[in-house]
Amino acid sequence: MGLLNTISYINIKDADSVAKYLQGVGCKVYKIDGNKISNMEELFGWIKEKFPQDPPLSGNVNFDALVDSLWGGFDGQCEEKVAIIWTNPTELMEQDKVRFDVLIECIDELAKTLSLDSYGVDKHISLKTILLGEGSLFSRFSI
Fold it and tell me: Where in the chain are the domains?
């Protein structure tokens, strides 16, 4: 999965190509529908409902707890290649820029630590996060 960065901003026109690529390399894919999320609280609710966690998330937005919970959740799965596809994250990016930036830093940290022996992972896990949207931030995808 070297063609994608830990976090990639891809043009939504390439959503099918990205999905096909991830399927081809054997990724377990988790999806976030940004059309249904307008604030960080809604995003945390989505993650609590759809993503593996250990320990389970509860309560308010807490980025340290998010990293710990998702780290344990992904480590407890049988998957060695995992991708998060987040369509249309723009509203949250614009409405809550500071916390969005913190979230992206947390996801990047999570991806890096899931592949380090020093963190005690049972197996190395490649985690890629793909944000699909429109505008100058989102580049075209090609393999």
Answer: 7-133
Specify whether the CB–CB gap between 134 and 11 falls below 8 A.
Answer: yes
Q: Model pTM?
A: 0.92
C-alpha to C-alpha distances, 13 to 7, 18, 87, nearest whole angstrom: 18, 10, 11
Write out pLDDT tens, residues 68-113: 999 999 999 989 999 999 999 999 999 999 999 999 999 999 999 9
Task: Give every CB contact of residue 143 below 8 A, 6+ residues apart in sequence.
Answer: 3, 17, 21
* CATH superfamily membership of 7-133: Barstar-like (3.30.370.10)
Q: Rounded distance, CA 97 to CA 18, Å? A: 26
- Cα-atom radius of gyration of the chain, to the nearest Å? 14
